Amino acid sequence: MSNTIIVGAQWGDEGKGKIVDYLTEGADVVVRAQGGNNAGHTVIQGGEKYVLHLIPSGILWPEKRCVIGNGVVIDPAALVAEFDTLAAQGVSITPDNLSISDRAHLTLPYHRMLDAHRESGRGGGKIGTTGRGIGPTYADKIERSGFRLADLDDPVGLAEKLAAKVEEANLILDAAGVEPLDLAEVGAEFNEATDRLAPYVRDTASYLHGQLKEGRSLLFEGAQGTYLDIDHGTYPFVTSSNTTAGGACTGSGVSPRHIDNVTAVAKAYTTRVGAGPFVTENAEFSDRMHGMGREFGATTGRKRRCGWFDAVLVGHACRLNGADGLAVTNVDGLDGIDTIRICTGYMLRGETLVAPPARCEDWEECDPIYEELPGWGDSPTAGAKDIGALPANARAYLDRLAELCETPITLVGVGPDRDETLVCG
Ligand code: GDP
Ligand code: IMO
Ligand code: MG
Predict the structure, then answer these.
(1) Is the pTM of this model over 0.90?
(2) Which residue, 224, 333, 342, 387, is the most exposed by fewest CB within 10 angstroms?
(3) Does the beta carbon of 127 sit less than 6 angstroms from any atom of ligand 2?
(4) DSSP for 328-392, written as a single string
(5) Which helix (H) or strand (E) holds 8?
(6) CA 350 to ligand 2 center in whole angstroms
(7) What is the pLDDT, as a whole number, of residue 338?
(8) What per-residue confidence (pLDDT) applies to 46?
(9) 341: β partners
(10) For residue 328, what are the contacts with CB-CB under 8 A and spacing of at least 6?
(11) Is 41 among the residues known to form the active site?
(12) Which residue of 21, 32, 38, 296 sits with most ligand 2 atoms within 8 Å of its CB, as the best mutation to test the pocket?
């Protein structure tokens, strides 16, 4: 059995949830290893829509196991709300099919408030965060003052620490003229949620080691995308975790030695939510997508910015992640377009770049170098049942993407439903 990491190759929302759902059939355990409820993974099965934020998409397969690893930051109130939403849709979640790492850090109300406060202080330089408290939670983790689920074992110490953290946050909020937090309220919300989570908490790294020993296969569900990675992304317009393949290992306790395959997921075009450089962004293309009812964020409902496929980005992402294969989703989004553009290089002050620059200011200045391919006119990809049934121009487009990104395309999405996934080769 093989162990596979799924990562986003662009700025998130590539369709990772759908690809993970599709691949879960061949896996035993599905693992989330970074990010928090900033993620929004939409999965459609037989017309029913599920949106996952913290829980791995594998939960929709009743017989599979899911793990929320140590690298994930968990807002306990948001996680129990997700339990309830999924339960109302008939999804069974029990300590038998979901485990949560005792090393995972917790997002508390003051993290959310500090996220909002820091954003407002950024003025014109706003990141456009999801407002879920992700940055402040990871900041506490790195600064070594965070809360972990394991801390629930010491209620007295935890209450003292919570009081100190709320007092510290209130000093900042008070100075900013923001209504301070009420410690009793924060404590009550925290206790109510963590009481429900307690039965799921365990040493998930050891659990995964046991699963590996028994020959079970693991599927790692990435959140966000390569260019939201804290190191490799469009810093500072990024999230606060390592969204690239290595994050799956550090965020789960599974050694890179056990990884057999990395699959990068990219849309057949590009989207981005929030601020930051986006070389191939195109207003007309964005309007077209929104007009079709596509490309609204699963977490915040914001309109996603849209543009042409950027092979500089995706090619570099394939190298950063060591991608064995590329899953290209939303090919049907290009149906009906006469001429399709692909960005093959960046022009920065007269020089051609084949990898993105380090500084956002330079990235913003890059002009795309495009090549144009003919679209596939009136023959849609939507509804195609296998790769051979795709229009010839759609196949030529995909072949060119694979060539430019130096990575074979293994899966193609032509619709949001689980069975609208085509296998190549
Ligand atoms: P994730 O965050 O990477 O899991 O992606 P999201 O779920 O946030 O966004 C991807 C969007 O594209 C969702 O609305 C999916 O239902 C949808 N989607 C995924 N693959 C396809 C596809 O091949 N075709 C179409 N039409 N929609 C798709
Ligand atoms: P999935 O897993 C798209 C973006 C935000 C913002 C930046 C920082 O669904 O692909 P944060 O709240 O993380 O501090 O925001 O990152 N962002 C995402 N964009 N998909 C996501 O997740 C995202 N998670 C965060 O819009 O630009
Ligand atoms: Mg998403």
Answers:
(1) yes
(2) 387
(3) yes
(4) EE-GGGGTT-SEEEEEEEEEETTEEESS--SSHHHHHHPEEEEEEEE--TT--STT--SGGGS-H
(5) strand 4-8
(6) 32
(7) 95
(8) 84
(9) 372
(10) 266, 267, 268, 398, 401, 409, 411, 412, 413
(11) yes
(12) 38
Q: How many residues does the chain have?
A: 425
What letter represents residue 175's amino acid?
Answer: A
CB 77 within 8 A of CB 194: no
What type of residue sits at position 134?
I
**Tokens representing 244?**
């690239």
- Contacts by 394-397 with C-beta closer than 8 Å and gap 24+? 394/331, 394/334, 397/268, 397/331, 397/334, 397/340, 397/342, 397/373
Q: Which domains does the chain have, with CATH numbers?
A: 4-101+202-262 (3.40.440.10), 105-196 (1.10.300.10), 265-423 (3.90.170.10)
Separation CA 216–CA 161 (nearest Å): 39
The answer to whether residues 408 and 320 touch, using CB atoms and an 8 Å cutoff, is: no
Is the C-beta atom of 329 inside 6 A of ligand 1? yes
Q: Atom of ligand 2 at shortest distance to CA of 302? A: 26
- CA 101, CA 114: separation in Å to the nearest integer? 25
CA 121, 125, 131, 132 torsion-angle sign: negative
16 lines ligand 1 (CB under 6 A): yes
Spatial CA neighbour of 211 closest among 372, 29, 350, 379: 29
Q: Whose CA is nearest to atom 26 of ligand 2?
A: 274
- 60, amino acid identity: L
Whether residue 232 lies in the annotated active site: no
Using most ligand atoms within 8 A of CB, pick from 42, 117, 138, 228 the residue to mutate for ligand 2. Answer: 228
Is residue 241 within 8 Å of residue 105, measured between CB atoms?
A: no
CA distance 79 to 239: 19
pLDDT value for 77? 95
For residue 206, give the amino acid letter: S
Return d(Cα 351, Cα 197) in angstroms, integer: 54
Contacts of 117 (CB under 8 A, 6+ apart): 172, 173, 176, 178
Examine residue 236 and say whether the peptide bond preceding it is cis (omega within 30 degrees of 0): yes
pLDDT averaged per 10 residues, the chain (length 425): 93 97 97 98 93 97 97 97 97 97 96 93 92 97 96 93 93 89 93 95 98 98 98 98 98 98 98 96 95 85 94 98 98 96 97 94 97 95 95 98 98 96 93
- Residue identifier of the C-alpha nearest atom 19 of ligand 1: 15
